[in-house]
Design goal:
alpha/beta, five-stranded parallel sheet, 26 strands, about 30% helix, globular, binds NADP nicotinamide-adenine-dinucleotide phosphate
């Protein structure tokens, strides 16, 4: 069959958006498809057909198999840091093709500002994960979780939690509202973990995701099998998955329920995380009266959230919870700001600040939900359900709509999500009531608390926190610098309990770990060292050559220097106190020190001992060690008195070559002991070491 643009008589066929399957582009031959198998996608402003979509015949089983074999093998050849570097290259590459993506994005109804949230936001996620992957993960394929647990008296049997990547595929099913950000925020952590992705964008805006995938592949940056794309319905994708795989879903609660009931999820162990809808609240503090900076920031945030992406954000503010007697002020201020700042129209037209909804179906859906809110007790106090004046009748345009509820407990306002520029306002009696009302949302992604009063902030935040994934405390100090109520940031978790889906995405390295299995490994220190690549206390050491004389290429974990002893005198302690000014009584006043339950009398400064340890273990001549970049986890265990002596053992514990530098980081295990073999202090020394001597 030939696919014609229904709005024009032109006979140019509208091509079917292809899928990327087993490292090749694929689309069904149009003449093999019935009309019912093809979905037409329309320009949100004009109703003109811009894409045809069908996943009929796509080899989903083959895609899963390809990811588990080719994708797993190619990603398995890279370390966390190498994958993270590729993400950075990808982010830079995509930054160069943004203009083309903005043009496509405008067809979805997005203004330039909306497109930036989606496209630049998505690219930003790649940058952040690249940087966090390199800073917070080792340059290897095993992520160590927490310290080793000693499981025997003599230290010969240890336990260590590790994370290794899932052996399957990450299927990423996204909602229509963020075709780019939604895809990249799921892809980035899966990629760093080393798990191949099958991306399934929502049909109404999937053509934009397809354009991004096309650029990603054209860049040649990704290894084979790392990314595949299903354009069109997911069909029987989940039938082909098992416990090795995960599904990360964003969309409606009803689709989440369908996925959650799939036998492969219920019985087969497929990991499913769901991000669904959410009736996010913004609570105005009792202190935030009209004219305060908090009131102004609150109103600005409400209007932004109602209109950015035309309110089609899972994080948009839906419920304005304001103090008793303040509804009128809030409605007036929101009305004034909307009137001043919102111009509805085709986002390609000059001066337009709010585009249409993504499709006529969405418009129908939002109008129907808004009508349910009205039927449930909402009075329209701003906007209307009619098409805005002067807009194309074929576009999915809608005015910002604010509804006032006299009954703050009306069921509809806590039940119905109108996924568009729609919000409701109602009043609370006191802070406890505000908390109760916020919780009636049944679990939300995010809430804002606008107050400058720390006591109000604490009461509200601690009251609502467990009902939310994120809480923004908005006041005069952060109003300008805040990233905003509606913007999930890659550093912080995104997701919420209950109605919000119960899932968790982003949150820095946490998101990478969602794509990995945590396993408790038990064994001897030597075995744990061999398995993890990190030296464990009690494992073999090599003291033959001073490790500061070895380049990063020569250094091995377990290389050690032992030095000392050095005896501490009362004069040493007095001199250190005098030169540093640290004359704390435990170092200077014998009587006061003896009265302290922790000290036998005057004791040496901990920092004196750490400084001496450096003097003992250092090899001073110029060599591969470039700098001491820090010290972590310092613990003083046993006090040292005049007459005691200390010695130190410094052992290379973790070696992290940097991908883009001529040096790497070496983490050393430092242990100070006294003449009785008691542990005096433990810590990690961080150094930068040249790759070659
Ligand atoms: P949706 O209809 O549930 O669709 C979401 C995705 O699921 C689409 O890719 C859809 O594909 C796919 N899908 C539908 N049925 C499926 C099935 N049986 N098996 C596998 N996949 C299936 O939701 P939407 O209309 O795109 O998005 C709007 C909703 O998403 C709103 O409720 C909003 O609150 C929520 N949302 C939540 C978040 C969050 O982070 N929590 C973010 C954005 C949106 P097709 O398009 O091909 O049908």
């Amino acid at each position: 069959m030939t696919l014609l643009d229904p709005r024009t008589d032109q006979d140019a066929p509208i091509p079917i958006v292809p899928s990327f399957v087993r490292d090749a582009w694929w689309s069904p031959a149009p003449d093999t498809l019935t009309d019912a198998a093809i979905q037409a996608v329309l320009d949100a402003s004009t109703g003109r057909r811009v894409a045809s979509v069908s996943s009929e015949g796509v080899d989903l089983a083959g895609m899963v198999d390809y990811a588990r074999t080719v994708g797993q093998a190619s990603l398995g050849g890279l370390t966390f840091h190498q994958r993270a570097m590729l993400l950075k290259e990808l982010a830079q590459y995509l930054g160069g093709v943004k203009e083309e993506l903005y043009a496509l994005s405008a067809q979805t109804g997005a203004t330039r500002f909306d497109s930036m949230i989606d496209i630049d936001g998505g690219i930003g996620v790649l940058f952040t994960f690249s940087s966090k992957g390199r800073r917070e993960m080792p340059n290897s394929q095993v992520y160590i979780d927490g310290p080793a647990e000693s499981l025997s008296r003599d230290g010969s049997f240890l336990g260590q939690h590790i994370y290794t990547r899932l052996p399957g595929v990450a299927c990423q099913i996204n909602a229509f509202n963020f075709p780019v950000w939604g895809m990249l925020e799921k892809f980035a952590p899966a990629f760093i973990a080393g798990v191949p992705s099958i991306v399934k964008p929502a049909t109404p805006t999937g053509y934009l995701a397809e354009a991004v995938v096309r650029h990603i592949l054209a860049s040649g940056i990704l290894p084979d099998g790392a990314l595949q794309l299903v354009s069109g319905g997911a069909r029987d994708l989940v039938d082909h998955l098992d416990y090795r795989d995960l599904v990360a879903f964003t969309g409606s609660a009803s689709t989440a329920r369908v996925l959650g009931a799939h036998p492969n999820v219920v019985q087969g162990g497929v990991r499913l995380t769901t991000e669904t809808d959410s009736l996010n609240a913004a609570i105005l503090g009792t202190d935030a009266t009209a004219g305060t900076p908090e009131f102004d920031a609150y109103v600005a945030s409400v209007v932004t959230e109602m209109t950015a992406k035309t309110g089609q954000k899972c994080t948009s503010i839906r419920r304005l919870i304001v103090p008793a007697g303040r509804m009128e002020d809030v409605v007036a201020a929101v009305t004034e700001r909307v009137g001043r700042r919102v111009r509805i129209g085709d986002p390609r037209a000059e001066g337009v600040t709010m585009g249409p909804l993504a499709s006529p179906e969405q418009l129908r859906e939002v109008r129907s939900s808004a009508s349910r809110l009205v039927a449930g007790g909402g009075r329209v106090v701003l906007g209307s359900l009619d098409a805005p004046a002067g807009t194309d009748a074929d576009g999915a345009f809608m005015e910002p709509l604010l509804l006032a509820f006299d009954d703050p407990e009306a069921e509809a306002v806590h039940e119905v999500e109108a996924f568009g520029p729609v919000a409701s306002v109602f009043e609370y009696r006191d802070l406890d009531h505000a908390v109760t009302l916020a919780a009636l949302g049944g679990g939300s992604l995010v809430a804002t608390v606008a107050t400058h009063d720390p006591l109000i902030a604490r009461a509200l935040v601690l009251g609502i926190a467990a009902h939310h994934g994120r809480v923004l405390v908005l006041d005069r100090d952060d109003a300008k610098t805040s990233t905003g109520h509606g913007s999930p940031v890659p550093h912080l978790v995104h997701g919420g309990p209950g109605r919000a889906g119960g899932g968790e995405e982003l949150g820095g390295i946490r998101a990478v770990l969602h794509h990995m299995q945590r396993t408790a490994i038990q064994g001897s220190p030597d075995m744990l060292t061999a398995i993890t690549g990190e030296w464990h206390a009690g494992a073999a050491v090599d003291t033959a050559v001073h490790p500061f004389r070895k380049s990063l290429a020569e250094l091995k974990v377990g290389d050690r220097v032992e030095a000392g002893p050095r005896t501490v005198t009362a004069d040493d302690i007095a001199a250190f106190a005098a030169s540093t000014g640290d004359t704390f009584y435990a170092h200077t006043d014998a009587e006061a020190a003896a009265a302290n339950p922790f000290f036998p009398g005057i004791v040496a400064h901990g920092y004196l001992l750490v400084s001496w340890a450096a003097g003992l273990f250092v090899d001073p001549a110029p060599g591969p060690v470039l700098a001491n970049s820090g010290l972590e986890n310092l613990r003083f265990v046993t006090p040292v008195s005049p007459g005691d002596s200390i010695r130190v053992a410094l052992t290379a514990k973790r070696i992290t070559p940097r991908e883009t530098e001529e040096y790497g980081e070496v983490r050393w295990d430092a242990v100070l002991q006294n003449q009785n073999d008691e542990i005096v202090a433990t810590y990690d020394v961080l150094t930068l070491v040249a790759k070659d001597a």
